[in-house]
């Protein structure tokens, strides 16, 4: 018994020791886990901060930074706390931008001002002055986005320097950044939201606050998705900003730049971008944004009001493709290598520019890109907003969303031409011809709804047709474009105006580059430089390796004159200095009612001999009326039909009929196994019944095409005809991620 008791007590003692040892071990594990977690947390914060620092240091060459300091140091006043060329009564945002330049010079080892005491004192004094006087700019963007971003970048550059900013100043700057910008209704989506997330990320790493970093990640990479008419990437792979307004390379470019930067900063951390969000971002960048670029220059149709800014057509993002995007999305590295050549003026044989046609049914925009050329069209409808004016920008862009056509081969055809443009003669548009361009002035800022419901297009991914029922500024016109391999056919019918000004359709207006020749039935005319003239019975015109054919010889206006104006004409506050240049301009004049036009654009024709050798007979215009517009390409065996009204179009033994207004394309018309593509420009039909008669097919039963619905309303429904009847094809949706 005593022995048992002793044994019991011994076992009990052993159990107690084991229990206490287990508790201690568990506590050690917890402490180790916490320490490890804390260490890991410290490591990823350091990693994020190091990438941001490296990014900021690589943005500018030391020579540029030195010049920024040297050229402005004499302007310092008020004990070196501000600059005499700044408008401080208006809280000039350039103050903080200049402070950032000084900071980059101070922290750049290659700069002559590296760790310069005088520069350091300037940084401290100019920052103190700005926040002591509590400057508030009239533009909310400068206060909510611009100032916090510049402040955050300055703090990150100075943080960790041997001589950091004074603690009290640093605390004050961080406090100024600490406001709920994410709650601002103007920052609830798109590019503005990612801008706010960026300065949250700066503040999060500076304060080592994971909660703030969480918010930054949540409101940037965590928000990448498709949005239905809200700011952001749309379900057709376009981009909206300020409501349903196409903004592919304006706010869309900022969005892409911010998202990829943030994704790279967060790479290999718990916040890393991956999965569907990464796929959506990369698809938008590859399939939409990059295809709006040719040889380093953007389509002017995708810049929004930014088209009125100097240099805006020059595409950026080279640094993204050097390292950030390939590291963020390594699965697409082959594509990124090809993409880089698009930005480096080496796109002639780029595989990304294989022939591709995309109609953006949400954005009312078309991209037709290929090895020889890009031809893009911008429109508007009752579902979208017209190109906006805002912040006193884009003052004369009234007709930009009325079928403006961007035609590029070299890429720089329109680069910085905007101040000298005649804005009532934007390429592709039908508009009043008014001296002084007053008719082109946008009547109010921040978006005007479109006026037409019949706006849309059909596409098989390679070819397509687009229609725009124009109703704007007393002008009505049924405009349509038919896109093939080498050619784009441009038609207009039912053209009329209730105004008193003349009425014109502009074929093109771009920088003059080389000779301009016009062909008539009797002669070939060379237009002299600096000349404007009328040509009767014109059959074609050639400029800059792009041929324009007129199926019916007609009166044509041509100009190669020098045009002069200033950027301030289209953007208040820009330079008043006159800009001049020789401009190629060709346009057609119309009657006041019931007129029409037709011209065929054929890029890649080098000279007059090539123009004369081109076989125009492979293109047949079957209809160009208010009821129907249709074109047959005999060489490709493709028929495209726009039915503005219920009706039919016939070509020999081929008949196309539909029970509702729509756009139809048939490929392989004479093959016996045609493919049929149908789209509803009004985006209201659930079903459209199509009746076909085709050669080699005795009877084809009418078939009912089921129209895409919801966010896909307006996209193309495809069918294939074989010996068993019609079979639906996989939808073509511009590379969106399902």
Automatic annotation (TrEMBL):
Which SUPFAM superfamilies does the record match to this protein? Chondroitin AC/alginate lyase, Galactose mutarotase-like, Hyaluronate lyase-like, C-terminal domain
Q: Which cofactor does it need?
A: Ca(2+)
Q: Which InterPro entries match?
A: Chondroitin_lyas, Gal_mutarotase_sf_dom, GH-type_carb-bd, Lyase_8, Lyase_8-like_C, Lyase_8_alpha_N, Lyase_8_C, Lyase_8_central_dom
Q: Which GO molecular function annotation, any one, does this entry have?
A: carbon-oxygen lyase activity, acting on polysaccharides
Q: Which residues form the Polysaccharide lyase family 8 central domain?
A: 357-605
Mind naming one GO cellular-component term on file for this protein? extracellular region
Tell me the active site. 242, 251, 305
Q: Which UniProt keywords apply?
A: Calcium, Lyase, Signal
Q: Where is the Polysaccharide lyase 8 N-terminal alpha-helical domain?
A: 55-327
GO BP of this protein: carbohydrate metabolic process
* Signal peptide limits: 1-40
Give the Polysaccharide lyase family 8 C-terminal domain ranges. 620-689
- How the protein assembles, per its UniProt entry? Monomer.
Q: Which family does it belong to?
A: Belongs to the polysaccharide lyase 8 family.
Q: What is this protein called?
A: Chondroitin AC lyase
